[in-house]
Amino acid sequence: MNQAKARSTAQRRGRTLKPGSPSIRRAYSAGDGVPRNDEEAVKWALRAAQRGSVRSYLFLGYAALRGTGTDKDLVEAYKWFNLAAAYTETIFAYEAAQERGAVAEQLIPGLSD
User: Fold this and answer.
1) Is 90 exposed, middle or buried (0-12, 13-18, 19+ CB in 10 A)?
2) Quick one: which of 66, 98, 68, 67 has its CA closest to 81?
3) Which of 23, 74, 81, 92 has the highest CB neighbour count under 10 A?
4) What is the largest CA-CA distance in the chain?
């Protein structure tokens, strides 16, 4: 399945998908109208992140933390959580800051002592 299939499904549900749209990432992540594909979800999340999607920053942080759709990489996870936490006016900032702290503790044990 491809972007056209994801767009077609979204349009039937009354949503419009643009290139780099976080909705394409959500479709692949959830298997919503397209087969679930974590690698495709990460690919589309990266495109959305380039457009400033804070939700995509958070998604990419979790993907790197868990190794879902990408290699497990704590430094990469920290980077994405840090970017999401920087947007303090969003509802995601607190969650991102908490996850960033947990990743930092894994990178540098004893950091919070």
Assistant:
1) middle
2) 98
3) 81
4) 53
Shared domain check, 72 and 23:
no
This model's pTM is above 0.85: no
Q: Which domain holds residue 27?
A: 1-51
In residues, how long is the chain? Answer: 113
How many CA atoms, within 13 angstroms, populate the side-chain half-sphere of residue 52? 2
Residue of 45, 52, 42 lying closest to 83 (CA atoms)? 52
Residue type, 21: S
- For residue 36, give both structure tokens: 């679930």
